[in-house]
Amino acid sequence: MAAAAAVLLGYAAFCGAIAWRGARRRPPAATRDEGAPLLVVHASQTGFAEELAQRTAAALGAAAVPVRLGALDTLDAGTLAATRRALFLVSTSGEGDAPDSAARFVRKVMRAEARLHGLEYGLLALGDRSYAHFCGFGRALDAWLRARGARPLFPRIEMDDGSEDALQRWQREIAALAEGAAEFRVAEQDTAAPWRLVEREALNPEGLGAPVFRLAFEPVRHAAHWHAGDIAVLEIHGAGDGLQRRDYSIASIPEDGRIDLLVRQVRRADGTLGRGSGLLTAQLQLGDQVALRLRANRGFRAPEEDRPMVLIGNGTGMAGLRAHLRARQRAGRRRNWLLFGERSRAQDFLCGAEIEAMLADGHLARLDLAVSREAPRRHVQDALRAAGDELRAWVAEGAVIMVCGSLEGMAPGVHAALQDILGAEALEALAAAGRYRRDVY
Which end of the chain has fewer surrounding CB within 10 Å, N or C? Predict the structure, then answer.
């Protein structure tokens, strides 16, 4: 999703073009087809698929095509069976999983019998080819729709990391549905901006795991704004490799005046440092500049209302959790509980002094640490199970649960623990209500 900002700028031009052509071609109201609306459905992990769905619906509406926009999780088999045409824009989470917001649809609709012989559909699958099961959920949904008798309006379109080519193909299909809308092109605007490295600190110089660094970047000639939970995308230009992008959770808030990143060094099999972590932790010198693009990550932003917050994570997942804690501290919201896992408390408790200061001054109501290499050895999901009664009480008081960290081990372990403590259906309901949010990688 690293090109999301440029993609959405392209959509703005797209909407205007369709509105202009639609106005020219629109027949008198008395002769228009007033049939059932075209259903535009999204399933999003980071909010990108939802934004594209909103843009798609707006473009179709501007061309006088009746549209109904909604989330996949709000649909049931009966609604789909009664629908004549639908567009699905769905992302994949991790290795082929459905987004958290679509869990209920997968369990209650895709695993049940449905007859969809009257449905025609188009599908845009969003994914990342760095994962083995590229666009896994989009492909699974496509296969399920076909197996239930639905007919595709056009072949499935797969978008790799915000690919402009895939978006252009999607736009052409939408234009056809809008009765020959005017041609358009994707805006070729690079929204990455220069940021200067002003600080770098080793957080675990004697740690049991790979070194982790905190890096601080200040904008060179621009103002920047983001929300706790958002992503910084590093653009790396290299000879022979083309443009490469690396996503990092932002560990600071705009009021800090800079972007903080927590980066763990990654070593390849031959012992050399990974492209992104090597550049950030070893090659850059203070004062050097990098190109960063800020990407909204709506699926990991906090709800606007003041709710208790349970933050769960491990390793460099502390970045996203730290940003939320700093935002909560600034807003004076003290009902915060952190459950964090690492190898060692003494050597690997990232940002430990800052977290303990929050605990001491009351901005953190509770702290549970899980260390896997020191007695008593346990993982963060073990700490969560041990505090099950307290967690249920926080959830009953309206708490939102935020999870940030590794996709392997921690995230599925925490998810299983939450299901055991709260129940699978209750956890799905929390996700649908925006009270269970994850940023895992």
Answer: C
